[in-house]
Amino acid sequence: MAGSSKVLGTLKSSSLLPRDFALEVGSTGAAWGACGALVVAAVLVLTMLQFRPCEAPAVPCEPTGNSLHMYKLCISVFLFVLAVLGVLSPVVASSRTSSKSDLMPGCNALASGILIAASIVHMLPEASEQLAPTAEAIRHLFGSEESFPLAPTLVGTCFFGILLLELYVQRVAAVATCKAAKAGKTMISDENLHDNDILSPSASSAARVTGERSPSSALAMLVALSVHSILEGVGIGVQGDVKGVSAVVFAVGAHKSFAGFALGSQLHECGFKDRVFIYFALLFSLCTPVGIALGTLLAEDSESEWKGAMLALASGTFLYIGIVEMLLPTLEIKPLESEGSQVNRSVLAIIAYAGFAAMSFLAVWT
Predict the structure, then answer these.
(1) SS3 readout for the chain
(2) Domain ranges for the chain
(3) Is the pTM above the cut of 0.70?
(4) pLDDT digit of tens for each residue in the chain (366 aa)?
């Protein structure tokens, strides 16, 4: 709790956010739960509206293109709001009690299972089906007896591509932190790394090497999370029906919120001015809506093979975020090792599988 007190003290004395705003955010922690409930309720209501009964009950009622676009627009607005709240409210995470902090690993574990299932069970088979002609052409080109596994290859390529980007961001952040440390502007301590793990178990790995924050490392983290957000948005945008969009909203929203926590904490501790802080917050928050719009446009204007390729790349993105960004950091965070923690790694693994299983069974209706 020493780290939390330090962050709270910094927030109160900082000119980054107005004092009244910081007090308001700190006194409205329940707003996060209300916001999450609002998102879930809105998704359910909009889903029911899309499938309201038709004049001829014997014929299934499918959403039109315009209604699907409106649904994606509503989802974009909700994800934008979640991201803004996440970036502007790091004080909420730092002021939580240990019992409330134990809830965050569970949410991350559940969201990771949902993302992994969305990647493997939903997106990958559809991508394989749409890329079948291209895979067959590659088979004839090489004279093979079996079709080339093009979709899984693209998934793995995207997975390792994002991994290489993360490693590069880590290197940039580490170099920036070392330079700042030599200049006497920052100190790297185990306590800071521990505090960062509490604040954002689902954040980019760039956050785990920044120590007590230099502007360069914060910008590197902003770039990495923005790229992830755009790819997440593309994964939502390429979905061709309401059920496909609704299936991944919770997981993407959870990742967006917790990543916003990490980014907001990072930017705040770097001491950016109000105008710059708000600009970065809006930039990060807009990335997922932009990705949704981009994915929608590409899916409509592209041939089946290109849509399959985009689905495969989105599948690789969800697989990476679900495993590397959410599940593994959740199982490795230091609060799980403390005596007072009520979180058990086995329980988290079961929660993750529950999310995976629930998302997998949705494939029966999607």
Answers:
(1) CHHHHHHHHHHHHCCCCCHHHHHHHHHCCHHHHHHHHHHHHHHHHHHHHHCCCCCCCCCCCCCCHHHHHHHHHHHHHHHHHHHHHHHHCHHHHHCCCHHHHCHHHHHHHHHHHHHHHHHHHHHHHHHHHHCHHHHHHHHHHHCCCCCCCHHHHHHHHHHHHHHHHHHHHHHHHHHHHHHHHHCCCCCCCHHHHHHHHHHCCCCCHHHHHCCCCCHHHHHHHHHHHHHHHHHHHHHHHCCCCHHHHHHHHHHHHHHHHHHHHHHHHHHHHHCCCHHHHHHHHHHHHHHHHHHHHHHHHHHHHCCHHHHHHHHHHHHHHHHHHHHHHHHHHHHHCHHHHCCCCCCCHHHHHHHHHHHHHHHHHHHHCC
(2) 2-53+61-364
(3) no
(4) 444 444 444 434 443 334 343 333 333 333 444 444 444 444 444 444 344 444 444 444 444 557 888 888 899 999 999 888 888 876 455 455 444 456 677 777 888 888 898 889 888 988 898 888 888 888 888 888 888 899 999 999 999 998 898 888 778 777 777 776 666 554 444 444 344 443 344 444 444 444 445 576 677 778 878 887 888 888 888 877 787 787 778 778 877 887 787 788 777 777 777 788 888 889 999 999 999 998 888 777 656 678 788 888 888 888 998 898 888 888 886 555 554 455 688 888 999 999 899 888 876 655
